[in-house]
Structure formats: C-alpha cells, structure tokens
Write a structure and sequence with these properties.
The chain is mainly beta. The protein has a six-stranded antiparallel β-barrel. The protein has a six-stranded mixed β-sheet with strand order 16-22-23-25-21-17, with no helix packed on it. It starts with 5 loop residues before the first helix and ends in a 5-residue tail after the last strand.
Length: 381
C-alpha cells in the first residue's frame, strides 16, 4: 500500500473532501505545470501489462509543442484526502504517457498509460546482447536508456545480485525486463527469472517486487460498513496450474538446470495436487482421493542458471496461478493508497472475514467508492 497516514486511513469512511490534482511535463519530469482537472478515472490492474491506466479531461490546457501533446508530454495525477482539521493528504494516482489526445470544448480528453508504455516504445533498432552481469545492472541499464534519470526500486525479497548470463534481445526492451521470448522461443525476462514482477508504480517508478501471495501481511482491514455493495464471488479453472516444472535452458545445447518442481501440497486446498505428483502420480487413486486433478505448467528460461533460482521461479509461478480460480468482486469506500498486489482482510458477511489479494481496484478520481477485483484460495468443502 502506498504511504498514507493513520488519520487519513481512519477518515476514509467519513464525509471527507476528495480533491484531485493534475500536472504535466514536457522535460521528463524535471518541471511540472499544474492544470485544471475536469473529470476522469484511474484503473490500477496487476493483470495488465501496464499497471496504471487512466482516462481524464483537463480544462484550459495549452496544446501543441510547448503544451500538452501526445509525443513528449507526461501527466501526473494525485487523489487528495481532506482529513478534518488537517491539511489535504495527496496520494499519487499514476504517472502517465499520453496514448490518445482529443480536443474538447473545454480542453483536452486524454487516454493515459503508465510508464511501462514508454519502455515498450523504446524498442531496439537492432538486436543486442545484454550481460553477463547482475540482474540489477542489466535491468537498470535497460531502464536507464528508456527513462533517463529515473530511479529503480528493488523491493525486499528480490535477489538483485543474481548473475545473468549474456542473452540476446531482438527488439522488445520490456519483454527483456519482464517476461517474453526471443526469436527462438526461449523465455527471457529478468524479473520472471528472479521469481519477481516489474511494473511502474503509482509514482511512475519502475519497481521490481516479489510475486505477491496470500501469505503476505494484510495492509487494510475492510469491515462491512466500508463495503458499499454486496460482494459477488465466482470460481473458474482458467489459467489454473497446481504443478510447475521449471528449467534453465539456453537452447544452445549447453547444460540444462533442473527441472525443479513445485506443487500445491496442502491437503485442505481444493487445488491439492497430491502428495507427490511427480514421483508418485498414482497416490491419489491409492489413497482414495479421486477429486485430485493435476494441471501442469512449464517454464523454461535461458536466464535461470542455478537450482536455487529455478526453485524461486517455480514458487512464484505457483503462487501466481493458485487463487485465480476463486475471486471476489466488491465495491468499497475508495482508498487511493491501495495497490494491486496488496492483501486485504474483507468482512464478506457479518462476522466472516477472508484474506484476498487485490488484482485491480479502479476508481473515479474525486469519487468516494472503488471497485475491487480480488483473488483468494479455495478450500475443500
């Protein structure tokens, strides 16, 4: 969760002022010019390639080369919380490039995409070899060329010193950072090879973070009085994997790392894969567990060079593919500090609390509510 004071968090359910601030820059964020905000919304979404997207209307906005344009302009948004008897507390609501600009009678209407879009657009004119070096050095080189002067955040739990072998990037800079494949189909992606994810956060800072899990600390407890619409839950087996096999393979005929296997080994889980689906696949039948079904996922990357690294990736892949089958949609009082990937405790019925991982939480800027799409683990009934 983004930084927010205890006073602002406690005031969310009260009749607080919710002002909005908008600024634009044409010099990479060295200077910012305020502009009058008209209306708009923000869509933070962990499942999208661009973590933050927005659509806003700005009033009396200058246009053209020295004003707001779709080539060089960046936009910053802030949602304010007006705590009684205290100054307005400003929460970042994204830093964006302009995807589409339309003139309106009162100003401009903008479709905005987070700074991942800037990195995606900075593709290589020719293939390049990256590394060998540490994950930190390789990633910061790739990001520094696309976003000069931008800091890079490395959250705890990401092994920044992991050695990356030399690997070829054909065109896609973002795929080299996050997760993609090269021309031969071999997986690349520095973050994915660390069992991590990379995104531009609400301040626009490129961030490497561990893949979130339901075991992460709860950042916000949401009682029934802050849930403004009845929760709706659903289940699906789409994209569900309860067994992962991960290997390190450059595809060049060299030594192969692994495979390393990780599976759902919790007998109380609806997605239980059995005691040992790799070495004893008949165990469920022998133990009278006909409901056990194995859904296998495979991941191979040239950037995985050790068994420890393969194990980290397998754990991350498993964490990310479990829980997708049980989701909850609800509307709550808007907390603009909430981020995709945060774990919340929700009172889904009177006295019934559940842990959920936030996938997306879109909200209207200046509004008092937000829609949350979450995932959780399902348990055997």
């Amino acid at each position: 969760m983004l930084p927010i004071s205890a006073a602002a968090l406690a005031a969310l359910g009260q009749a607080t002022a919710r002002p909005v601030r908008a600024e634009w820059s044409n010099d990479g964020g060295q200077t910012w010019t305020p502009v009058q905000f008209g209306s708009g919304n923000v869509t933070p979404d962990r499942t999208a390639e661009v973590r933050y997207a927005a659509a806003v209307e700005l009033l009396d906005a200058p246009r053209g080369r020295s004003g707001i344009n779709s080539v060089s302009t960046e936009v910053r948004l802030f949602q304010g919380i007006g705590v009684p008897r205290l100054a307005v507390e400003w929460i970042p609501a994204g830093r964006y490039a302009i995807d589409r600009l339309r003139r309106t009678r009162l100003g401009v209407s903008l479709d905005l995409l987070g700074r991942e879009d800037v990195v995606r657009g900075a593709s290589f004119p020719t293939a390049r070899t990256i590394g060998p070096d540490t994950a930190k050095a390789c990633a910061e080189q790739l990001l520094g060329e696309a976003l000069p002067g931008s800091p890079v955040a490395w959250r705890g739990g990401v092994k920044v010193g992991t050695q990356m072998p030399a690997f070829v990037v054909d065109e896609d800079r973002w795929a080299a950072l996050s997760g993609g494949t090269d021309a031969s189909g071999t997986a690349t992606g520095i973050a994915a090879s660390l069992g991590a994810e990379v995104y531009a956060d609400a301040r626009g800072i490129p961030t490497f973070a561990p893949v979130p899990t339901l075991e992460d600390p709860v950042v916000w407890e949401i009682p029934r009085n802050l849930v403004t619409a009845e929760p709706s839950d659903e289940e699906t087996s789409e994209d569900l994997k309860n067994l992962w096999a991960v290997t390190g393979d450059s595809g060049s005929g060299g030594a192969v790392i692994g495979p390393v296997f990780r599976w759902d080994d919790n007998p109380d889980s609806l997605t239980y894969a059995g005691p040992d689906p790799v070495n004893d696949p008949l165990a469920p039948a022998r133990l009278g567990l006909p409901q056990v079904r194995v859904r296998t996922g495979r991941y191979s990357s040239a950037l995985i060079t050790s068994l420890d690294q393969a194990n980290d990736v397998a754990a991350a892949q498993l964490a990310d593919s479990l829980g997708v089958q049980a989701s909850l949609s609800f509307t709550s009082v808007c907390n603009p500090a909430l981020e995709p990937g945060d774990v919340v405790l929700v009172e889904v019925a009177e006295g019934v609390w559940e842990r959920h991982l936030i996938d997306s939480n879109p909200y209207t800027l200046g509004g008092v509510s937000m829609a949350c799409q979450t995932r959780t683990s399902t348990r055997r009934l």
